[in-house]
């Protein structure tokens, strides 16, 4: 049977959409395969045991020594420390937003947390250099760069992610559970602590996993404040010892390693390990999230064994947090003080057994409110520091002129234009592919194995650390394809990074279009593609634009992907072609802080310009989303 011409066009368009959806999977496997290929020569000269468990990393020795254990352990330490900081503060802030704060404050805090999630990590790193490290030197009489500094800063960076996901998990619990608990006489705090939190433990676990992924993938902030020492901190109590992580090592050494050297292969081995860890974390997080959704839909009931496992995990995390805090106190105030605090804490816990329920609730809400205020204070102080010190520098002359003396003087006009060029190019590559992939997933794909594979590919691409994209772009585009450090290499690298964001936001926007509109269009004789083109896509424009705006903010604020693919410090105003290197705002901040530590005022000005640009993009996205949500409710 011959197909009609219109049917052939529909099949061709569907094939194009399917190809766009498979592109995300292709990128994931391409990155994995590329890293395996580049890391494989390492194991011909260094055994896997020596690489993973060796304690000496000396790439400049002859022959080089590539024991990655200090770097791996450093990554674990920084991640654990970050979660000790981010998890209790994030949980407290999420509870405050979800159940305690008045409506207007709730909306303000939720929007603020989402907004702060878009602050570029290089700005956090710059803040760490200027504020956190001096505070550590003064307070604890140490050099400053250390495990504690890195964990503290990465914990702050992870806070918006933990707060946002945890709050969503808490509010997703059925209102019936809340009303049933209150109906049998439980207080508000008893309902939250004994009903809501246990019911949302899967979502909270997903928040923790996402926070872990965010912490392990952080590059710029760790490079700036960790100290980058390749020695293992054998004493777990030694919080103020310099430390190194996988991302920090990649960021610092990839530009120094000679092509084809054992050093380069060892760095690819670290990148492959980081990628595998990220894939495991992302897969676990997605699995937990899917179970949460099924649980909320009543598709399965958690058995008693599952509840016991959750209790064991929860208690283990609590013990680790308490141990970490007591370690910190013991190192800085003495073991006797730590013991006294432990005894006091145990006594307070016993005392709560005899306090009235109202007093316990008041105490719990006070602690939760303090946690929320602490989160807002820390994140707000970062903004205040950058704005108060950067705004006076960002004059018209500063914005409209080029840099002088390597960037230590002059303006940022080339960096602004270069940032815009990089963002525009990334959108040109990513937006068509992302929208086409989202259309296929929402309008054509069935709930089968193919759709699951595509979804896994998109989720894993979304969770990859930015340094992996930078390394991939450096190797494939800069070296293998011979683009060199160029605008086109940076644009393609950034497009791969923002692609999953565009796919997911567009797909969610398509889901909001009522099914009745599709049915009405088809009933009038329109083809499926005509329905999508004329009805569905116009109705989903607000959500799609939100995703694009968020992608603009993320692409403009990333440093690691363009560190070795696109950027140089130059006095030239504009590149002549796409194969010329460019300047960019985040890269200029990094160079000023690393190469010219005395150019603090100049760095504050650049940081202010970048912060304003990114926050404006995210503000537009939040306002757009809120406006159309309210419009739909009306």
On the 0 to 100 scale, the average pLDDT is 82
CATH superfamily label of the largest domain: MetI-like
Unreliable stretches: none
Helix content: over 70%
Largest beta sheet: what is the strand line-up? 1-2
Query: What is the second-level CATH architecture of the largest domain?
Result: Orthogonal Bundle
How many helices in DSSP terms? 27
Backbone CA Rg? 26 Å
Protein described:
- The chain has 634 residues and is mostly helical.
- It has 2 domains: 342 residues, MetI-like fold; 212 residues, Orthogonal Bundle (MetI-like fold).
- Helices cover 76% and strands 1% of the residues.
- Strands 1-2 form a two-stranded antiparallel sheet. A two-stranded antiparallel sheet has the order 3-4.
- The longest helix has 35 residues.
- The protein is globular and about 75 Å long.
Features:
single chain, 634 residues, mainly alpha, MetI-like fold, 2 domains, two-stranded antiparallel ribbon, two-stranded antiparallel sheet, 4 strands, 1% strand
């Amino acid at each position: 049977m011959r197909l009609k011409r219109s049917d052939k066009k529909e099949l061709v368009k569907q094939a194009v959409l399917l190809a766009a959806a498979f592109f995300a999977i292709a990128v994931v496997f391409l990155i994995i395969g590329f890293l395996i290929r580049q890391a494989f020569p390492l194991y011909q000269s260094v055994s896997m045991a020596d690489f993973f468990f060796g304690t000496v990393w000396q790439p400049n020795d002859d022959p080089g020594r590539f024991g990655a254990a200090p770097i791996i352990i450093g990554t674990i330490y920084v991640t654990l420390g970050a979660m000790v900081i981010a998890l209790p503060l994030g949980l407290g802030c999420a509870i405050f937003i979800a159940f305690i704060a008045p409506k207007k404050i709730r909306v303000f805090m939720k929007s603020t947390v989402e907004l702060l999630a878009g602050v570029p990590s290089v700005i956090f790193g710059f803040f760490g250099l200027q504020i956190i490290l001096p505070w550590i030197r003064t307070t604890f009489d140490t050099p400053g760069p250390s495990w504690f500094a890195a964990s503290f800063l990465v914990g702050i960076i992870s806070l918006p992610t933990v707060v946002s996901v945890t709050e969503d998990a808490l509010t997703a619990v059925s209102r019936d559970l809340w009303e049933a608990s209150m109906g049998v006489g439980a207080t508000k705090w008893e309902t939250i602590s004994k009903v809501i939190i246990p019911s949302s433990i899967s979502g909270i676990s997903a928040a923790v996993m996402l926070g872990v992924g965010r912490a392990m993938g952080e590059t710029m902030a760790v490079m700036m404040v960790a100290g980058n020492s390749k020695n293992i901190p054998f004493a777990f109590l030694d919080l103020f010892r310099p430390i190194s992580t996988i991302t920090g090592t990649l960021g610092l050494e990839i530009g120094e390693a000679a092509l084809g050297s054992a050093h380069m292969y060892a760095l690819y081995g670290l990148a492959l390990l980081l990628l595998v860890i990220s894939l495991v974390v992302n897969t676990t997080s997605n699995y937990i999230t899917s179970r949460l959704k099924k649980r909320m839909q009543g598709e399965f009931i958690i058995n008693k064994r599952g509840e016991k496992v959750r209790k064991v995990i929860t208690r283990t995390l609590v013990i680790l947090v308490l141990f970490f805090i007591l370690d910190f106190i013991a190192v800085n105030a003495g073991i006797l003080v730590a013991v006294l605090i432990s005894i006091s804490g145990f006594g307070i816990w016993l005392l709560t057994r005899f306090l009235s329920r109202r007093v316990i609730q008041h105490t719990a809400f006070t602690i939760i409110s303090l946690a929320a205020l602490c989160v807002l204070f820390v994140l707000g102080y970062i903004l205040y520091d950058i704005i108060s010190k950067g705004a006076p520098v960002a004059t018209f002359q500063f914005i409209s002129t080029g840099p002088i003396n390597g960037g230590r003087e002059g303006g940022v006009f080339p960096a602004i234009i270069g940032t815009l060029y990089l963002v525009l190019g990334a959108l040109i590559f990513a937006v068509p592919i992302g929208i086409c992939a989202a259309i296929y997933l929402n309008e054509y794909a069935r709930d089968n194995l193919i759709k699951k594979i595509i979804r896994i590919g998109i989720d894993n691409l979304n969770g990859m650390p930015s340094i992996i994209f930078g390394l991939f772009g450096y190797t494939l585009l800069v070296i293998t394809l011979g683009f060199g450090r160029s605008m086109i290499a940076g644009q393609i690298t950034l497009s791969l990074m923002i692609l999953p964001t565009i796919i997911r936001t567009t797909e969610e926007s398509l889901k909001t279009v009522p099914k009745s509109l599709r049915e009405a269009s088809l009933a009038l004789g329109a083809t499926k593609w005509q329905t999508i083109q004329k009805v569905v896509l116009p109705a989903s424009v607000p959500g799609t634009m939100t995703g694009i705006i968020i992608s603009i903010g993320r692409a403009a604020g990333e440093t690691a992907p363009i560190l070795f693919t696109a950027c140089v410090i130059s006095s030239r105003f504009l590149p002549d072609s796409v194969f010329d290197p460019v300047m960019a705002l985040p890269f200029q901040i990094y160079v000023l802080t690393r190469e010219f530590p005395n150019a603090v005022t100049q760095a504050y000005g650049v940081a202010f310009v970048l912060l304003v640009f990114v926050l404006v993009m995210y503000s537009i996205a939040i306002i757009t989303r809120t406006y159309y949500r309210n419009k739909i409710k009306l």
